[in-house]
């Protein structure tokens, strides 16, 4: 027997008992059984209302919650890429130093130093400070001194200040105001080591040549 129908079944049994008592002429017992049946039926109705309200409240709580599920990650730990993201509603005052890419959706007042990676200033992003990176993409607003190997000013990008670069791309709609300097290409280091002839070895070789003569 299901528990939620237990009170209803008890109510029916008590009500039948009240009818039998009334039929045999036991009016007092019939009235008492009828009141008891009414009490059980009221409890059944009240329990249903409370259960319904609780389920409704629980469902509303679940609808307002945010659930996150982990995504499968089959990459090797060395292949995982981390990134620093300044969200659109964040205003950061201070310097950023990182070895991973930096994406600016909000605003930064300070220097960004990412020598071996990317700095991407998004369309609504703003940076008031110096930027030193390997690759720089500007689709927002940057004011300061920028240094990078590859600099790309996109359609909505605005750069005001000084720029030192290896390669520069300014798309239609992008603006650059200030001084630009073409950096010298990097010199590749070689591991060739010069050989120095030992003086004693040189003298021995000369003596051998004299004896042969």
Automatic annotation (TrEMBL):
Domain of life the protein comes from: Bacteria
Keyword field contains Transmembrane: yes
Keyword terms, alphabetized: Membrane, Transmembrane, Transmembrane helix
Pfam family, one: Bactofilin
Residue intervals passing through the bilayer: 36-54
Keyword GTP-binding found: no
InterPro entries: BacA/B
Family of the protein in this entry: Belongs to the bactofilin family.
Stated name of the protein: Polymer-forming cytoskeletal protein
